[in-house]
């Protein structure tokens, strides 16, 4: 086994050393670094070594169209890690073979930012279980061919972390792991160019401690930013990452990676050193645990996201989130106009096919309206503040005619920069229809929900469902009564999984059954149809109607035309084609598809007959 390590190390050694020593100017730190890599490789158990060998022999294993992800909170879904293991049959019934567990490492109660303030990278929250339980779940998932993903919070630690406590006590070597200052002189210089992450709930980028010292805290005051200019920080955090990989985690989500390098006079985002560290981490995985993937969390526009893939000869992250498409999708639903979505997807489709995105409608976080407002202004004269206000009014049900139900997060009325919270079903109108006991409205809301999921499944990459969306879970307003949660409206869509309602998933007369069975049908079709391959040719065409998006996919002689009506009106739209097409989901045959009748908020998957 160690022969394999030495071979892989030799393959990357020159670049690994060059990047590391150029960044840190410390060859002794590099020797410690490579010694740590060897030690971590020795600790990798046999089952994981075998998996490494299999996946090295099949480097495209994670690009298959049958991959379907789900993200969930352990406590909300099943109480504990052992509980999740017991629910594996349900996950299999959902077709899930990629499971993203939301933050579960040890963090202080009430000061955790939903688990993103880690106080121990090698311990699980006691209420959820132990590290042994996590490893047992990973083993069980591996036996069922389910890949496990876990968040790795890179940018900061909790103020309760051992390093932070030692730094606060002045123990040698530990203050240098963070950014400490004795006066506000340098922090104020930083804040001249560094944007605030949470201007309403956590303004500023620094916090003054009880002892008078000032520490960098870009996110929340209890999250102390790590100093990656210190090689000891990078070495030790890399070892923490490999510790999780050796527990059986298949995918490591690099949280907030664009923020990890700080430089005075810059915005401290996406700096060149970030890409050096990202490339180093990619080589680390290829050397120590080649079956492990890196998922970058880069919540920015496509031009700033794509560089985190690296290049074909010097790759960085294996996968990235398709954040902008998610936000633009919800904009399109409220606007009833696909122009921006078409413009943005043309840019996505033009990217190299090796770039693999994770696509999703909802996740644990809020929806930020990071839309291409310069383009909207040029095309439609759109005012950014007014448009954000419209979107938030629409999705909170304040706009006349809207059936969406959500709440705002970090609302800043002055800038109009609030973000949106809510489950997919509630934002699509299911909650309002249920409350009003309106069966017609409910049918429309369910159709809208399924259409958005069909759109997500039509995109290249790995589709990821937010737990509960498969049965139309609604907003959970009980967080208002919890003193630890009431100030964070994101808990609106982080409710307990409704196992009682999930029992209706087999009953097609219920909306839970309609959504569950409808979604499973879409997922099965996607897994079987070659046109959904990640490396298929994809492009956008003019549908003849600004309310309908036309996405085309082709593999060899097989062509699939996907039409999505984002409006609440009946429309006729399509693309210019000769020859017959068959609709894959609802049936039906068309001699031409230049003018297909589409119900409000509906879709069609049209496969060319000559296939």
Write structural notes for this entry:
The protein has 611 residues and is an alpha/beta fold. The chain has 21 helices and 25 strands. It has an eight-stranded parallel barrel with strand order 1-2-5-11-12-13-14-17, surrounded by five helices. Strands 18-19-20-25-22-23 form a six-stranded antiparallel sheet, with helices on one face. The radius of gyration is 24 Å and the shape is globular. The protein starts with a helix and ends with a strand.
Helix/sheet category:
alpha/beta
Major beta sheet summary: 8 strands, parallel, barrel
Multimeric organization: single chain
Secondary structure: number of strands: 25
Distance between the termini: 47 Å
Name some characteristics of this structure.
37% helix, eight-stranded parallel barrel, alpha/beta, six-stranded antiparallel sheet, 611 residues, 21 helices
Summarize the structure.
The protein is α/β, with parallel strands linked by helices.
Write the layout of secondary structure elements.
Layout: H1 2-24, H2 27-42, H3 46-57, E1 69-72, H4 74-78, H5 81-86, H6 88-93, E2 98-101, E3 105-106, E4 120-124, H7 131-143, E5 147-153, E6 156-158, H8 162-168, E7 180-181, H9 185-191, E8 206-208, E9 214-216, E10 223-225, H10 231-245, E11 251-255, H11 272-288, E12 293-296, H12 302-305, E13 319-321, H13 323-335, H14 339-349, E14 356-360, H15 373-380, H16 384-395, E15 407-409, E16 419-421, H17 424-428, H18 430-436, H19 439-458, E17 462-466, H20 499-502, H21 511-528, E18 537-541, E19 548-555, E20 558-565, E21 571-573, E22 581-583, E23 589-590, E24 596-598, E25 603-608
Parallel strand pairs: 1-2, 1-17, 2-5, 5-11, 11-12, 12-13, 13-14, 14-17
Antiparallel strand pairs: 3-4, 6-10, 7-9, 8-9, 15-16, 18-19, 19-20, 20-25, 21-24, 22-23, 22-25
